[in-house]
Amino acid sequence: MNMEPIIIEGSPKTPTVHFDANEGVFKLEGRSIPENSVEFYKPLVDWLDKYKEGPLPRTVVEIKLEYFNTSSSKCILDVFKKLELIHKSKNEVEIKWYYEEDDEDMLEAGEDYESIIRVPFEMIEIVE
Amino acid sequence: MSFNVESYFKDLQKDDVIFSYKGDISSDVINIILDTVEKKTVVASDTSRIRKKVYNVLVESLQNLYHHADTVPADFEDQESGRFGLIALKKCTRGYMITAGNFVKNNKVAKLGEKLEKINNSSAEDIKELYKFILHHQKISPKGGGGLGLVDIARKTGNNLEYKFYDYNDAYSFFSLSIKINPLEKVNN
Q: Do B53 and A77 touch (CB under 8 A)?
């Protein structure tokens, strides 16, 4: 699919983003604690909205967050809702949710999403 | 005599305070506070688990101030701050305590008090369900808050939200919120 990828360098308050429609592995990594998370996530949600018109047969999304604030949590749900639509239209989608060893809060956060979104999740512990 | 912010802030600094600030809560100020605290809380005895909880609670407390602090009363000494708030991080015998304070218009006190009481009277399981419900069903407010901050703090710490509304004048109260972050496993969960 001919779409400009979204590649954003991480900052102390925003994550590194690597969404490339040709690769089929999308990544969100680092910290997501901006005051205005909608401003940051809207372009990603819009991008996925376009991607869902002609997705790859298999899309893997890797979420590797160290911290995220409650304002981001709603935006991340919006991202997942787009993935749910892609999955609904008979494409393979998988969300890999990474959490650091002992970070049960991050694991629980992943499980919250898993219970809301109908997409297969894999919880992956990062062992140092 | 009405509530005095300056002496309240001084009292906060009496104990083992690691960090404290009062003044304008801008996005840049939040960056600086988080950066400073992150460097200061790297205590050898702390696990990464408690460091993360402290950081998370601090982020939510600061952003609550950023999104919800009311404008200051007309007679308040600091008229420059667009969003006035105060924040302190203390070391306790066990773990840490974060205190945040801001002005609230009196007509909002009852609603905020109810929300806090509801959280404090909920079990860990209910708080988890409440979090998921708000996450799933509530839109982000025009202010940018998700309405999840307090619920998230209660959920991550497993502790009650200790709060107080101090009378300031006919129009304003001063709201203080203290949260303990314990080193051990969450209680009731």
A: no
**pTM of the predicted model, to two decimals?**
0.93
Over the stretch A82-127, which tens digit does the pLDDT of each residue have?
999 999 999 999 999 999 988 999 999 999 999 999 999 999 999 9
Interchain CB contact of A33 with B (< 8 Å) = yes
* Residue B160 identity (one-letter amino acid): N
Buried b (16+ CB within 10 A) or exposed e, B19-40: bbbbebbeeebbeebbeebeee
Of B49, B136, B146, the CB nearest to A71: B146
**A60 reaches B (C-beta below 8 A):** no
Residue B100 makes CB contacts below 8 A (sequence gap 6+) with B61, B62, B64, B65, B85, B86, B87, B176, B177
Condensed to tens digits (0 to 9), the pLDDT of residues B144-154 reads 556 799 999 99
Non-local CB neighbours of A55 within 8 Å, separated by 6+ positions: A1, A21, A86, A91
